[in-house]
Design brief:
Layout: H1 10-19, H2 24-31, H3 35-44, E1 64-65, E2 72-73, H4 76-86, E3 104-105, E4 112-113, H5 116-126, E5 133-137, E6 144-148, H6 162-172, E7 175-179, E8 186-190, H7 191-196, H8 204-214, E9 227-230, E10 237-240, H9 254-264, H10 286-295, H11 307-314, E11 319-322, H12 332-335, E12 341-344, H13 348-356
Length: 369
C-alpha cells in the first residue's frame, strides 16, 4: 500500500522534503502524482513547509531580502518587482546603501519613501493629489512662489499667505462708486463685483434695456428672421417663422380661432360633417322614444345611470340612439324599429356609441337587441 501511495509514508516524505531539500514539484514528478497531493500530505503529516526563497537548496546563491518587510526572494529581480508593487518604490540602483535611504517624505502624512516615484504614487493614491508644483502670483500683494498644483482651486485668485487673504477680504468689504451702463446713474458696488463684471446696472430693467439695444439687434434679434402675418379674425399683425407662414389662415389667439370657426366652419365646412341633416321619417315620435326608455327601465344601457340621476346631472332625460345609423336605411320603419333603438346618456355614453357605429356593445336589456 505504501509503494502505491509513497506520500502517505511520513518518514520517506520528510526525508525527501527536509533531508534532500527536494521541492514539491520534484517529489511529485518522482512519485508520479500532482504537486497538490504532496502539499496535502505535508500538511497532514504536519511537516513544516518552506517559504519561497527562505530556504535555498544546497549550491544555490543566498536569497535577497526586501529592505522594507524583510521578505526573502530567490533573485534580485523578484525582490525589485515585489518592492515596486508592494511598497510603491523603485530599487533600480547599484548602491545598496541607497536601498535603505528615506529622503522623500510625504507632505501630508509624513510617511518616508526611498524614491520620489514611490512618494508620488503614494500621494496620488492615498491623498488624491499631485505633487507637481507651479508658480503662482498672490492676488493681493503680487508675490510669487511655488505651490503644489493640487492646492490651487481657483488660479485667478491665489494668495501667498492667510494674512494676504484676510487683508484682501477686508478690502473687499468696501464699496466703490460706478455708473450704470444704461442710464448713467451712480451706484455703490463692492470692489470684487466691479472686477468680476465688465458693466454694472441699476437693476433688471436697465440690464434688459441695455441688452435689447446692444445685443439683441439685427440678425441676433430673436424675431429677425420672422415674417408678418394677419389674424384672420381680428386683423392683428403677428410675427411667425417662415415655415409657419404658408398656412391659409393665421390667428393671434385661441379665442380668435374659436370666433372664426363658429362662423366659418359650419355645414359642409364643419370637421365632423357627415352629409348634413337627415330626417328620421315616419315612426320617430315622442311616444316611440318614451316606449324605448320604458323598455330599458329608464336606465342608460351603457353605464346604468337611472333617469332621476340623469335629470339631476344633465337637466334632461336620456337620449334614444339609433344603433345602426339612420342614414344606413332607406325604409323609415326599419330605421326607427324598436330593435334599432337604445337608451343612453346624452353625453359620454351616446358619444361612445356614435363613435362605434355601426358596431355596438352589448346592451343591458336583452329586449333591446
Amino acid at each position: 500500500m505504501a509503494d502505491e501511495h509513497p506520500w502517505r509514508d511520513e518518514e520517506r516524505l520528510r526525508e525527501m522534503y527536509c533531508g534532500e531539500m527536494l521541492t514539491t514539484y520534484e517529489i511529485a514528478s518522482e512519485w508520479g502524482c500532482c504537486r497538490g497531493t504532496i502539499q496535502t500530505w505535508l500538511d497532514k503529516h504536519e511537516i513544516p513547509t518552506r517559504d519561497r526563497g527562505k530556504s535555498p537548496r544546497p549550491g544555490e546563491k543566498d536569497s535577497v531580502s526586501c529592505p522594507d518587510c524583510d521578505q526573502d526572494f530567490d533573485t534580485e529581480k523578484g525582490m525589485k518587482v515585489h518592492h515596486g508593487w508592494k511598497h510603491d518604490g523603485d530599487l533600480d540602483t547599484e548602491d545598496e546603501s541607497a536601498l535603505n535611504s528615506w529622503d522623500h517624505k510625504c507632505p501630508d502624512c509624513e510617511e518616508e519613501f526611498s524614491t520620489e516615484r514611490g512618494l508620488n504614487i503614494h500621494h496620488g493614491r492615498v491623498h488624491d493629489g499631485s505633487l507637481t508644483t507651479i508658480e503662482i502670483e498672490c492676488h493681493y500683494c503680487g508675490g510669487r512662489e511655488q505651490r503644489p498644483k493640487r492646492q490651487i482651486n481657483n488660479p485667478d485668485r491665489v494668495f501667498c499667505s492667510r494674512e494676504c487673504h484676510h487683508k484682501w477680504k477686508g478690502d473687499d468689504t468696501t464699496k466703490t462708486s460706478v455708473e450704470c451702463a444704461e442710464c448713467g446713474g451712480e451706484l455703490e458696488r463692492y470692489k470684487r463685483r466691479v472686477e468680476q463684471y465688465d458693466r454694472q446696472f441699476c437693476g433688471p430693467s436697465c440690464r434688459n434695456s441695455w441688452y435689447r439695444s446692444n445685443i439683441a439687434t439685427g440678425a441676433e434679434h430673436p424675431l429677425y428672421d420672422r415674417v408678418e402675418v394677419e389674424c384672420a379674425n381680428c386683423g392683428a399683425v403677428e410675427k411667425r417663422y417662415p415655415s409657419q407662414s404658408g398656412y391659409e389662415n393665421h390667428f393671434c389667439s385661441g379665442d380668435c380661432y374659436g370666433e372664426w370657426a363658429s362662423e366659418n366652419l359650419t355645414g359642409e365646412d364643419a370637421h365632423h360633417y357627415k352629409g348634413g341633416e337627415y330626417g328620421y321619417g315616419p315612426g320617430w315620435t315622442l311616444s316611440k322614444k318614451e316606449a324605448v326608455r320604458e323598455r330599458d327601465d329608464r336606465e342608460c344601457q351603457h353605464c346604468g345611470r337611472g333617469e332621476e340621476e340623469h335629470l339631476e346631472e344633465f337637466g334632461r332625460r336620456h337620449a334614444v340612439h339609433h344603433i345602426t345609423p339612420a342614414r344606413s336605411f332607406d325604409d323609415p320603419q326599419k330605421r326607427n324599429a324598436m330593435n334599432n333603438l337604445v337608451t343612453l346618456c346624452v353625453e359620454r355614453c351616446h358619444q361612445d356609441w356614435e363613435a362605434m357605429a355601426p358596431l355596438r356593445p352589448d346592451t343591458r336589456s336583452n329586449s333591446a337587441g
